[in-house]
Design brief:
The complex is a heterodimer of chains A (259) and B (194). With 259 residues, chain A is mostly helical. Helix content of chain A is 69%, strand content 2%. Chain A has two domains: 146 residues, no CATH class; 70 residues, no CATH class. In chain A, helix 1 runs antiparallel to helix 4, helix 2 runs parallel beside helix 4 and helix 2 runs antiparallel to helix 8. Chain B has 194 residues and is mainly α. Chain B has a single domain, classed as Arp2/3 complex 21 kDa subunit ARPC3 (Orthogonal Bundle). In chain B, 78% of the residues lie in helices and 0% in strands. Chain B contains eight helices and no strands. The chains are: A mainly alpha (259), B mainly alpha (194).
Chain lengths: 259, 194
């Protein structure tokens, strides 16, 4: 089984479901076990390169750390009782520490689930599948695909505008108001030309007979296969096992607007 | 959806694409702020993530513009490969719904600066409630959560509402919105003044 072969819509639904389920639990053990399972799945079945994965993952470590320390400081536990956790220069009550680590691990869990999706999903297939499985209107879907193709063009345009400014001797903005003026000089022409191109594209689509009706046929058919249900099953069991272990070890806690 | 013209849909998608890139560019800024200030860091600039709703609704003025543009921007963000993943589509839908609700209250007739600011705040409220559930803000002290909420409201009103209006008006001045509601309004005002 390969994660790339799964139906993108089903994969997205599974991931979203997993995020929801994870959001209901608030203890350190469940997200820790679940996330570990997700990482193993990603590398075992995802053909994902370590380097790219880390590139995406590191920022989330920073966020999680941000959550961790602010929760330690601002945690709303009420009781100061319990064992003291000593971090050398600061001390916290045990319950504060547990809340902070739970929150941080939860954020990481969400991130890891998302990485699994992003790094194993083809963009065009995702959109085709949104149209075929989730009944997204073809008008919107092809509008989005057309818009998506504009991106590289806009990059070229941006460079052209910059060079046009330079060659006419427009100075770079100084100070905050100067920077704002500079942004305006770039953004408005860029958007204006994008809108012009979009209008032309729309006219072209209509003149080629694109009606946007839902009864269209597709060159590439996206199907839901048993593999997709297996993936859903695997994710649910992983969640079940994580919760079970957490309960067994006495850490388990529901999330009910904690503390 | 049938009332929409193809040109409106493609223009909305293109706006969503452009702002999806802008949204992604602001994620590291948010992360940096979060690193310094904790979770409130995001709220300070949260308004930027609602801006396409305001711009699309203000320009196109059809039911669904705010919701759809934000949703499309979220889909594009996922396609471009950000690490928030498919969950982001749901967040985008919820933010879009917040702005959409405000426009729906005016029955899609009023698009003055107050309505646009209120729409930005609508997104802020919806997204905050969503974030409250998902991110476990409840674990933080309530004054801190309140500060986060207020920061996000102001950010929604100012960055999404005011900046969104300013960008759209500047675009209307260039004349490219000739075929859109905002462009028509600008022409009417010009003739009225002359």
């Amino acid at each position: 089984m390969n994660l790339q072969e799964l139906n993108p819509s089903m994969k997205a639904i599974t991931i979203v479901l997993a995020v929801f389920l994870l959001a209901f639990v608030f203890d350190p053990i469940t997200p820790l076990l679940f996330s570990s399972g997700v990482v193993i799945l990603t590398f075992l079945f995802g053909r994902v390169s370590w380097k790219i994965w880390s590139l995406y993952f590191v920022p989330f470590l920073i966020i999680a750390f941000g959550f961790f320390w602010t929760t330690l400081i601002f945690a709303d536990t009420g009781s100061q009782a319990g064992t003291i956790v000593d971090l050398g220069f600061l001390t916290f009550s045990h319950s504060d520490f547990q809340v902070a680590i739970s929150l941080a691990l939860r954020v990481l869990g969400f991130a890891l689930l998302s990485l699994l999706f992003i790094l194993t999903t083809n963009k065009t297939e995702f959109l085709l599948s949104l149209m075929q499985q989730l009944k997204l209107s073809p008008k919107i879907a092809y509008g989005v695909l057309a818009g998506y193709r504009f991106l590289p063009m806009m990059m070229t345009e941006w460079k052209a505008i910059r060079m046009a400014h330079r060659i006419r001797g427009v100075r770079r903005g100084k100070g905050i108001s100067g920077r704002v003026q500079e942004m305006k000089r770039y953004v408005i022409p860029l958007l204006a030309s994008a809108i012009r191109k979009a209008e032309r594209t729309a006219i072209a689509m209509e003149s080629k007979g694109f009606t946007g009706s839902k009864e269209r046929t597709f060159y590439r058919n996206m199907k839901v296969t048993p593999k997709d249900w297996v993936f859903l099953g695997v994710m649910l069991s992983l969640y079940g096992v994580s919760v079970y272990c957490s309960v067994r070890w006495g850490y388990f806690q529901w999330y009910d607007g904690q503390l | 959806m049938n009332k929409w013209k193809m040109r409106e849909i493609v223009v909305m998608s293109v706006l969503s694409v452009v702002f999806a890139v802008v949204y992604l560019a602001f994620l590291p800024v948010g992360k940096l702020l979060v690193g310094f200030f904790g979770p409130i860091g995001y709220d300070l600039i949260f308004g930027i993530w609602f801006i396409v709703s305001i711009i699309a609704a203000y320009i196109i003025r059809k039911p669904g513009a705010a919701f759809l543009s934000e949703t499309i921007a979220a889909i594009i963000e996922v396609m471009l490969g950000n690490a928030v993943g498919p969950m982001l589509i749901i967040s985008g839908m919820i933010q879009g719904l917040g702005a959409e609700a405000v426009f729906a209250v005016t029955r899609y007739r009023m698009y003055n600066v107050w309505v646009l600011m209120a729409a930005g705040m609508g997104s802020a409220v919806f997204s905050f409630v969503w974030g409250y559930f998902l991110s476990g803000y409840a674990a933080l002290a309530s004054p801190y959560v309140a500060a986060m909420f207020i920061a996000r409201l102001i950010s929604g009103a100012v960055i999404a509402g005011l900046l969104g209006k300013a960008i759209s008006d500047a675009l209307a001045k260039t004349g490219v919105l000739y075929n859109f509601e905002l462009g028509k309004e600008h022409r009417r005002n010009k003739h009225g003044a002359a």
